[in-house]
Amino acid sequence: MIQKEMLIEDLVQTHPELIGPLKDEGIVCLACGEPVWGTLEEQAAQKGIRDISDLVDRMNDRLKKSEKDNHYLR
C-alpha cells in the first residue's frame, strides 16, 4: 500500500509499475533518468499537486488493478 510518507526511491523499487503513472503526474523518478529524493508528499507538493490523498488513492487503485490482472494471468 502506498503512503504519502514513502520515499520515492523505495516506492519505485517496490512498485516499478508505478513509474509511468508517477511520470504522468509530473513526478520524475529514478528509472526515468533523473534521480528524485524525498517522499511522495514532498515531490507532489513541488509539482503543485495539492490533493496528496487523491494521488495516493489513485496509485493504490493502480496497484490493486495490477495485482488483480496478474492474478488472472496465473
Structure description:
There is one protein chain. The chain is mainly alpha-helical and 74 residues long. It has one domain (8-73). Helix content is 57%, strand content 0%. It is built from four helices and no strands. The chain has helices at 8-14, 19-24, 40-46, 52-73. The model has no long low-confidence stretch (mean pLDDT 85).
- Write the H/E string, N to C: HHHH
Given as residue ranges, the uncertain stretches (5+ residues, pLDDT < 50) are: none
Arithmetic mean of pLDDT:
85
N→C terminal distance: 22 Å
Percentage beta strand? under 5%
Helix fraction?
Answer: 55-70%
Radius of gyration, in Å, reads: 12 Å
How many individual helices? Answer: 4
Record field, number of beta strands: 0
Shape: globular
Total domain units: 1
Mind describing the biggest β-sheet?
A: none
Structural class: mainly alpha
Secondary-structure topology with pairs:
Layout: H1 8-14, H2 19-24, H3 40-46, H4 52-73
In short:
Helices cover 57% and strands 0% of the residues. The chain has 4 helices and no strands.
What labels describe this entry?
0% strand, 4 helices, 74 residues, mainly alpha
